[in-house]
Write the structure tokens for this entry.
Amino acid sequence: MDFSNIDRILDKYDRSPSGIIRILQDVQAELNYLPRDVLKYIASSLSVPLSHVYRIATFYNAFSLVPKGKHMISVCLGTACHVRGAPKVLEKIERELGISPGETTEDLEFSLETVNCLGACALGPIVVVDGEYNGEMNVSKVDELLKKIKQGGEINE
Amino acid sequence: MSKFLSKQDLEEYRKKIINSRDPNKIIIALCGDTGCQAYGANKIADAFRKEIKAKNLQDRVELKITGCHGFCERGPLIVIYPKKIFYQKVSEKDVSEIISESVVNDNVIERLLYVHPETKEPIVKEDEVPFYNRQQKIISGMNSVIDPTNIDDYIAIGGYSALEKALFDMDPDSIIEEVKKANLRGRGGGGFPTGVKWESCKNAPGDIHYVICNADEGDPGAYMDRSLLEGNPHSVLEGMMIGAYAIGSSEGYVYVRNEYPLAVENVNIAIKQAREYGLLGENILGTDFSFDIKVTRGGGAFVCGESTALMASIEGLWGEPRAKHIHTVVSGLYNKPTNLNNVETWANVPLIINKGADWYSKIGTENSKGTKIFSLVGKVNNTGLVEVPMGITLREIIFDIGGGVPNGKKFKAVQTGGPSGGCIPEEYLDTPVDFDRLTELGSMMGSGGMIVMDESTCMVDVARYFLNFLKDESCGKCTTCREGIKRMYEILTDITEGRGKEGDIELLEELGWVVANASLCGLGQTAPNPVLSTIRYFRDEYEAHIKEKRCPAKVCKALIRYEIDQEKCTGCGRCRINCPVEAISGEKKKPHIIDQEKCIKCGICHEVCKFDAVNII
Ligand SMILES: Cc1cc2nc3c(=O)[nH]c(=O)nc-3n(C[C@H](O)[C@H](O)[C@H](O)COP(=O)(O)O)c2cc1C
Ligand code: FES
């Protein structure tokens, strides 16, 4: 495996163990997940035990140890979205995609996750697809949304 | 741009900006906050840019992308200055008309105005809209006036003059005295007196002191810190600079929640600009005060909002809180004296320095001074951010500003304080909002989430919701928190799924007491609050679930069923087509029925029926 891009990230943070969260954030942003070999490489480059790297990688929700799909669907389950019916929206998406939060479809097209408040509560329930916010979601709007993503079209009307 | 080397440099520059700006130039302030972006504000901005260019109006009008204006329910929002014309629910299609009518000509487009819900009169000016005119926006008000990515805008409205005053007319002790006198209390939840904290940190021995801004905003239903950091980042930085000077710190951090990309971006831009102007860095404004700020992104863990966990996280460790026999003001980040304050707390500081403690402490109640920003969300007509003086009643916030509960439903409770807070029922709506009164009611001020619930919200489900959140977010260090919350969650799940039994309520109360009293940090200590407060005020709802296996709000799936009203059903077939499990049958134009064996209670039929014929029983 070629670790040159990892080296670049490590250098950006002076290979300092206290920069490890930022290092993992950058790796996650670049590779979409944290592959095992990369974690091993980071541990040895920073001279910290692999268990230390794993402890951080598993503590924070922002990190994933498995590959994510091409499209990331995040359903907000914050309080405001919850009382406005987010659980039903989530259920519908789960049913349509056949996966639960934290999982990725077999064809690596979709990953589903839940988040706690995206700070757009006024428009709840919120579903974010690849960084685009979709407000005032309900069960009927889910079909339309999934269809649009599959067609690769614009999500926001 | 050369750095300001003195107070005069900054003052002259301020004058220069103000003079170079044409007061008659029309400014279209478009909210570009995360919320309005979700409504498509970016496209509207592009359309305005194109239209202004096409019509060659660059000299007459300027488009300004601002932070959150507050009235998120009606987004995308624009305000046209200097007349303060307020347009709501604006879309791309309206852009060219706005330019031709309200910029080129002097007309108001009635269709885009806010209509008073009672008088039905259209309202032209922003400050006449009932949602705004009862607020006192001393902290968030500038959000809708300035471009947060342009430091000149902040300087033009008097920005960094409090820093000047602090550096040149005051000394560290008198700054701390002023903050103490203003009786500013922490807006991050606890309400700890800020001046006292600063003083302890200043007096703690050590050559290095740190100041940190807590922008982790973990409360799932609150977004005021985000909108301040997105909309007016310099006010937060200025507060931190003044605090750092008073405490004797030369290094600061802003710890921002991972889920807030725009806030991270804007605060980074602000820091960069402040450095370029010499407002951060060595020898600020020619004095011997040096200070710089770094931004750290969180990793998506609620517990990292807790002071010691946050500091561990900045150090690159997992965010587990530690016991605080030694306070963080004495030994915090890298074991150095560290002063942590919330975003909104920091944003209050420049105001107190500029206007003085006497002015500031006139606002609010005896022990809670100033204003508080709340995110008013949930089942309320006017969702958005509201900034109100402390001491205003919950009723005024929810009904006068918030416009009450939508769809003619009945108000049930308001949740404040996030996962550490509680639900307050109708009979206490006339309680003035201040730190102590909310605590007396079994809730708390918290960081400012205010979630309105109506009769269709199940309080047992809400309690279960918060415990589910806390069970996932507990770092696992304390057994009582890790296991206790989980057990409480299991009991609540049993109750909502029809397996509740006699004695469950008492068991929840007992467990709650243990979790609260035997956990190390605030997460565990306050985790039982959502349960205990709902038991306190809505015990009958718990009992209905347990004894009668009935969910009065008709939310808990296991305790309800869907049925089609044979009188109302027109046989249109919408529900049949939309049912994901083919549980609905019936001939065209004849009443349909639901097969209860097959039904998974997803609620789609209820949602899609146009004739209100699907009942929840
Ligand atoms: C579990 C937990 C989460 C917290 N989350 C936050 C937060 O998101 N933002 C915040 O400002 N304070 C949060 N706090 C409170 C902080 O520990 C701290 O009291 C506060 O940042 C101090 O600032 P203040 O005095 O200006 O309020 C949290 C506390 C606990 C126990
Ligand atoms: S609760 Fe969903 S965006 Fe805040």
Observations:
- Chain A has a mean pLDDT of 90.
- The CA atoms of residues 62 and 131 of chain A lie 14 Å apart.
- The two ends of chain A are 42 Å apart (CA to CA).
- Strands of chain A lie at 71-76, 110-115, 127-129, 132-134.
